[in-house]
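Narrative of accomplishments. A recurring question from our advisory board has been how the design workflow behaves on a single, concrete structure rather than in aggregate. To address it, we present the structure tokens for one chain from the evaluation set, followed by the sequence designed for it. No filtering or post-editing was applied between the two.
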């Protein structure tokens, strides 16, 4: 057998793993950009105020502060939930197994999400227009855990359905 024939399977696996991590890496970069001054509450507030005024008309300052806080916290929950999903599929490709879901893949996805959330808040502590908060890390992890519960629920359900359909 030639050496290129032996190298092909590992290069194919490497390519699959590399491609599986691209969405996760891009999402990590996006989260990093969200941690900058450009996404501080002053800047997001200005944009959100314009959107609210265009769609609903003027609202009170108190109502806007509440809506703005909810939008920002929902963004945390959603962004880190999505990171957790992407990381799960990246780990599943990197560490293949016979099952569609394992705690190992979910655990590694949650670990990556926790590390990212902590580093994000640490980074924000150096940005004058941002505020670092352990509460945000908790919210980020709630989004990540919610995503992992959804993945586990739907992959288990799909496995059970496919098992029922294949039974004689």
């Amino acid at each position: 057998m030639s050496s290129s024939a032996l190298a092909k399977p590992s290069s194919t696996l490497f390519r699959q793993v590399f491609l599986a991590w691209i969405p996760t890496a891009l999402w990590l970069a996006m989260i990093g950009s969200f941690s900058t001054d450009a996404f501080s509450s002053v800047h997001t507030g200005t944009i959100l105020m314009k959107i609210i005024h265009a769609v609903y008309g003027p609202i009170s300052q108190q109502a806007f502060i509440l809506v703005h806080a909810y939008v920002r916290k929902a963004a945390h929950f959603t962004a880190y939930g999505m990171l957790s999903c992407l990381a799960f599929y990246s780990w599943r490709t990197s560490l293949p197994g016979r099952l569609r879901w394992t705690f190992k893949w979910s655990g590694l996805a949650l670990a990556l999400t926790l590390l990212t959330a902590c580093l994000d808040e640490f980074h924000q502590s150096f940005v004058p227009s941002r505020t670092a908060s352990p509460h945000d890390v908790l919210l980020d992890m709630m989004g990540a855990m919610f995503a992992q519960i959804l993945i586990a629920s739907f992959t288990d359900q799909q496995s059970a359905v496919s098992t029922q359909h294949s039974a004689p």
